[in-house]
Task: structure prediction
Amino acid sequence: MKTPVTVLGLGAMGTALARTFLAAGHPTTVWNRTPGRSPELDDLGVARARTAGDAITSSPLVVVCLLDDASVRSTVEPVAPELARRTLVNLTNGTPEQARRTADWAAQQGAQYPDGGIMAVPAMIGGPASFILYSGSVETFEQHRDDLAVLGRPTYAGSDPGLAALQDLALLSAMYGMFGGVAHALAMVSSEKLSPTAFTDVLLVPWLTAMLGSVTRMAKDLEYGAAPGQAGSNLAMQAGAFGNFIDASEAQGVDPLLLRPIRSLLDRAIVEGHGDEGLAVLVRLLAKN
Ligand SMILES: NC(=O)c1ccc[n+]([C@@H]2O[C@H](COP(=O)([O-])OP(=O)(O)OC[C@H]3O[C@@H](n4cnc5c(N)ncnc54)[C@H](OP(=O)(O)O)[C@@H]3O)[C@@H](O)[C@H]2O)c1
Result:
């Protein structure tokens, strides 16, 4: 028999997790603060627990996916004794510090605690592009790897419980950087009534796809060092062009507020003598220690 699983939280993501466990044949118990959420799960054979404590005692593997750290703590702390000898997998978005604190707390309750970061939207759960970061004890990760694999590729992030959250937030930061840049680009082309979809399909997506090579280059230069003067697109050139993005945006009636911080960083790189280097320099300028 497949491992019985409990899912605490039936928001958009918790519902997708529960549906996927059920589809994979795991006996699945759910609890949600507001009862009766996601009625479609009933036809799939879900068991609904009246309380969070009842839900936890139904399964050795408990997955919690609530809004935030505060909602997780207010849900599990009152039922702490029920967690002893179980595995609590926290797939709620949070910070590394929150993950480490909850890991310490879970250890005091006698529970195993992988902290996780879901790199997928609900519709992707159970599909080939979904992956989930886990940190904490590698033995616990291995013990539940097959159970968790139904949700998305299980990816071990390290024994420090904070490392899944750290990498999750880093990945989301990169994503929001892209979304911010895309929002600015679409505002620029919309200022001339160009078609956003034509611009996106014909130009933007191929351009961003081609630029992924520069992302890899940045990481390599950061890790191994770049030969001085070898940057094909040096920062002095980039800083020179960047002023045009801002001037053109203002002339088109587009607020360049998302571009200005990047301009400041480029200017600082030039002032500090890195004009002939590449983008990896920006990473070093951002790091405070
Ligand atoms: N959706 C995504 O694309 C996505 C992707 C990756 C990661 N995540 C992460 O997954 C987590 C859940 O996201 P979601 O999309 O499922 O959010 P959601 O649809 O807004 O659902 C929020 C869930 O949290 C519960 N909740 C909120 N406050 C609570 C409290 N004080 N006590 C107990 N339960 C509480 C809600 O219960 P009620 O029904 O009672 O309100 C609901 O079950 C978040 O941390 C999110 O960052 C989401």
User: Anything to note?
Assistant: The mean pLDDT is 96. The longest strand covers residues 153-158. Residues 191-286 form a domain with the N-(1-d-carboxylethyl)-l-norvaline Dehydrogenase; domain 2 fold (CATH 1.10.1040.10). The chain has ten helices and eight strands.
